[in-house]
Amino acid sequence: MPADEHAPAPPSLRQRRRAVATQEIVDAAERHITEHGPAALSLRAVARSLGMTVQALYHYFPDRDALVTVLIAKAYADVANAVRAAAETASPNPAVPRFVIAAEGYRRWAITHPERFQLLYGTPLRSYEAPADGPTTRAVQQMSAVFQRVLFDGFTPEQLAAADTLPLSPPFRAHLEHLSPNGLAALPPPATALLLSGWGHMHGLVVLEVFGHTSFLGDHQAEVFHMAMCDLVTDIHRRIPAGHAHSPG
After folding, report:
1. pTM (predicted TM-score)
2. How far is Cα 109 from Cα 75, in angstroms, rounded to an integer?
């Protein structure tokens, strides 16, 4: 049997043209957000920037929510790729935990793309509601998986289950145990609680910087963030009992 007998047919000319036009619309929408902020996004403004009518744009995106969903999923994917690339980059200082390197990749993306970061974490767009279990949810899970891996590499499930945290209420523990298997449910509840706490600390510092609340630190913001992330990892890891841990992957 020829190897390519069941290979998918190449996209048609019409499909290729549609893909190109769709990408142009997404690129124009990202430029509009960068120049005017997420709240100013409208299909009419995007269409005008491309020399299209808004009716023509509807052939590619039936409403603003459809375009916003693509933009949010793409932003999450881009920041996840930045975090992954940072985590996989060899550090000049082997003593620096990979979580810290990954967190610094997250920070760099956010301060380089503040408007797209605000699209993800700023004031929610009026009347927008992300589709349940849609592309935005999957994109968040991809980024969470990177941080989960670099924070808990080398620890066994038994160690993570025995992590020293404040007692979790039965309802909260039950909720964590029933999360989607593609998300945080792969972790024992105590480890999930530690990951969420660490995420909140890391993300909070980045939000403060992106929104200008730590500008009084001037050029020292990166150093403060680095110190905070090193302390965070040290605190989390000391809460996990020693054992016969696997070598970090």
Report:
1. 0.86
2. 10
User: Hunting for tokens 């996989």 — which residue is that?
Assistant: 88
Number of domains the chain is built from: 2
Identify the CATH number of the domain in which residue 40 sits. 1.10.10.60
**pLDDT, tens digit, for every residue of 187-205?**
899 999 999 999 999 999 9
Domain range spanning residue 26? 1-62
Within a domain: residue 246? no
